[in-house]
Design a protein that fits this description.
This protein has 3 domains: 114 residues, Lipocalin (Beta Barrel), CATH 2.40.128; 103 residues, no CATH class; 122 residues, no CATH class. The protein has 5 helices and 22 strands. A hairpin with a 2-residue loop joins β9 and β10.
Amino acid sequence: MKWMLRCAVVLVTVYASVQAQAPITGNWQGTLSAGQQLRIVVVIANADGGGLRATFYSIDQTPQGMPGSAVALQGNTFRLSLPAVNGAFEGTLNADRTSIAGTFTQAGNSLPLSLSRTTPETAWALPEPPKPMTDAGAVFEVATIKPNPSGQPGKLLTVKGRQVLTINTSVNDLLNFAYNLHPRQIIGGPSWLESDKYDVTGQPVGQGQPTLPQMRNMIRQLMTDRFKLTFHREPRELSVYAITVATGGPKMTKNDSNPNGLPGLLFRGLGVLPGTNATVADLAGVLQGAVLDRPVVDKTGLSGRYDFLLQWTPDETQFAGLGVRVPPPPADATHPGLFTAFQEQLGLKIESTKEPVDVLVIDRIDRPSEN
């Protein structure tokens, strides 16, 4: 059994009403046995405007945010939902309010988890968020580029500590990421830009975790130094998808925990996309890079970061960016199509339109130089 808690230390802010006569605020901790012993801390506090907010940590893992939807105390039953990992915790508060005996559930699988109220003497230390890298340090000190001959679909671009890693990425993938473009916005260049796949490991000069703009700049540097890329830009009118706010406003959970941190946007399957600490522009970038067949532009005007879980049934026009052929959706599909799910689950709309956008015209590019 693979538990998704391995991907992050979890930070969830969720709200609900709670009975004033049954206070549950404070720090609670316990150990979850999920193939390894994971120390869990749940910090419950009063929310602005009433109700509760809860912060859920897996302190033996990395401090990334994870979306939540609801926390509630009804009688002696405490509930906390973690939809980004399809998880939840439910337990019974004992009479003297010192422990909660319950169950952590994920994707239909359950594990026991009991939480105890902490004191200053017994409380486990909470993890510090990673320190951001300075712009001066956000250049590659060394980078290795290795061909990936696996022929497998899928790709990954991520950060491990302060290393920037890509797995099974084409040169077009690197260009799409570095310049935040859809493949239709890259003009010219040889056929191997799409067919040749590479694994890249880049070690920045500076300490700390790079931001997303810093990662893009480092990949741009790599393209210039190692691929000898030169290009120019031209404006062209293209068919695009525009993201706007639906009637009723966004339904995502605001995440103010780490405004300089990296977004978490990693598919857990075709049509299952949890988002943590992500802007709408970050979401648009993932959709245009992996899912949709045209550029995606953010027209919402929303500048904040959010947690959410987007679940939909993909169709045969989607996920070409991951090299995956999707069959037509079944008649009894569990989830709606992407456009409907976007509105129902996120409070946003995707609309087809035409807009002038910049395209990148390649003047020169070479296969990468030796490591």
